[in-house]
Amino acid sequence: MKNSLIGFFIGLAVALSFTLFAGENPIHIGWILTKSAFGSPYDLGLTLYYTAGLIFTGLSVSVAFKAGLFNIGAEGQLLIGSLCATVAGLLFPNLPFPISVCVATLAAILGGGLWALFPAWLKIYRGSHEVIVTMMMNLIAAGLTSWVILKVIPNPDSQNPESALLSANYIFTNDPIKKILGDSPASWALVIALLCSFLVWYFFEKTKWGYQVQVTGANPFAADRAGQPTKKLQLISFFISGALAGGVALVEILGNSGQFKIGFSPDFGFIGIAVALMARNNPLGLVVSAFLMGALHKGASDLDFETTTITRDFSKIIQGTVILFISVQGYAWFKRKKGSK
Amino acid sequence: MIRSLLLFITILLFNSFSIANLKVGLVLDKGGKDDKSFNSAAYEGAQKAAKDLKIELKYVEATDINALENLHRQFAQKKYDLVIGIGFAQTEAIKKVSKQFPQTHFALVDGELLAPNVRCLLFEEHQGSFLVGAIAALKSKSNKIGFIGGMDIPLIRRFSMGYVAGVKHVNPKAQIVENYIGVTGEAWTNPAKAKELALSQIASGVEVIFVAAGASGSGVFDAVEEKKKLAIGVDSNQNWMRPGFILTSMLKRVDLAVYKVIEDSLNNKFTSGVVRYGLNDKGVDYALDQHNDKILTADIRSKVDDIKKKIIDGKIQVPDYYKTSKK
Hints:
The complex is a heterodimer of chains A (341) and B (327).
Chain A lengths: L1 H17 L7 H13 L2 H26 L7 H18 L5 H30 L3 H23 L23 H5 L8 H18 L1 H11 L1 H6 L4 H17 L1 H10 L10 H11 L6 H22 L5 H29 L1
Chain B lengths: L1 H19 L2 E6 L9 H16 L2 E6 L3 H13 L4 E5 L4 H10 L4 E5 L8 E6 L1 H15 L4 E8 L2 H17 L4 E8 L8 H13 L4 E5 L4 H11 L2 E6 L10 E7 L1 H13 L6 E5 L6 E3 L11 H16 L7 H4 L3
Parallel strand pairs in B: 1-2, 1-3, 3-4, 4-5, 5-11, 6-7, 6-8, 8-9, 9-10
Antiparallel strand pairs in B: 10-12
Helix pairs in contact in B: 2-9, 3-4, 5-6, 5-10, 7-8
């Protein structure tokens, strides 16, 4: 984590110095980015909204990593999870408040988890590579959700590509987090996200199963020889991975908009990979890296607003440079670890 | 006397003050100002207003749906007089922000929203699509006509339904091949896939393709140039992009609407409510310029203008997806 933070800041410094070419003062750009993240309760709220989403997808990627699998499918799993939460909400509009949210959450977990289970099954029992399968399933998920949203549960009062609204029973009306953060998209889901990162940390550090999963991830053959149920462990971890991605439903559907808007995710699933990488799969460090990436993402639109030359595309350069430097740091760390073995 | 003179001077000062300093913010959709289509049209209209009317213009491009509210709020907080949102995705954001900043004027393109300080600019896309459908059927020698949409969303369905009706109006036997580029937002910026779809449509015997897919459209233009067929552009006048291969463009004059709302704000004539742009006020139309006057023959033009007149007079009813899909 320390190394990747260094990587992050070197990357940020290099990226900011690029802005010199665009005729901007890097210190000024850095100041805008900082203000963008902390400037007002609303700004912080939007940053924390991205953070919460990225914690879920980051955890999703890192749990699969620990089991020796590479889950590129968080984007698809979060879509299916969100879809299931929306459908559950529309099916049972009259459930009383806390139960309704629990049902929708359960639907999101099951949806995301089961969607992830399929590529895991293909990988473990048929040998298809999970990277390819999960990536392809992202597109299937996008197609499936678009179809269900537009043809089965469209919003009757609008021509926008979005689902019908969930009933008021699903919305936490006096959400203290929303209140503090200026009625921003952030919500109680942030607390759940933090809780999840703690639970994942606990799972890996303090439980037998967590240890078994890590052993499997480190060397599946050795683990198999040592009598570990490697297949079962990998299946379970991939299910957890998908379920965590489904947690984005809490951030967006239940915590923010109360409906499924097609295209709501700013690539949470893919930025989540960078988040997990940056935190070296440490569930607690992941909170920090999710916040930093969230702030960068939030800063992109503010840079566009505050300056004339730093457009949306330039912000991509900044993000890309930061990710590159983190990966270089990560690679160096990986080499060192291999060397020491 | 002195009093009225003072009043006169203050009014004069106030007026010159407000004229010199009208600040307009433009929030573009994900497609960005260079999509050569929908957002480009809005951007050009605003640029023209900035030049002609000497207003202060600032534009931003959205990164994702949740950033929209942030951008509108920033504009309002910086005391911009008019904030224009391009695209239906901004409806929610403007709804929320317009309530918090009742002094600021907002304009929303493609979205419907009732608020005392919001003007909605809507277009009768189905009418324009009907016209280009008729043009396609008149020009095409084969009985197969193509349509390529970005994503299968209601807005694009509205284009396709009008287009199909226009084709059938001229040639009831015609068969329409309809394809959509993708299922994610990336569908609007994927010319490579648009080109593949166009090539496969052409291989199946299609001669004219109408493409309503934002920045992806350029892929279709590449395909028709390669195979010497024809395409129909959308939103902006795209005839210049491949002269001789673009039969016409279905104009959606977002630029006019944007210009008008800026002008009205400047002259203190801003009104809220819904303004619809259709064939009768040239809010939607087909494009004719030096790039396509050879392929769009006088014969076709006179027939199409006849159809246009009939639609305006209400003799032809163009089916509207927005109305048929509502139960």
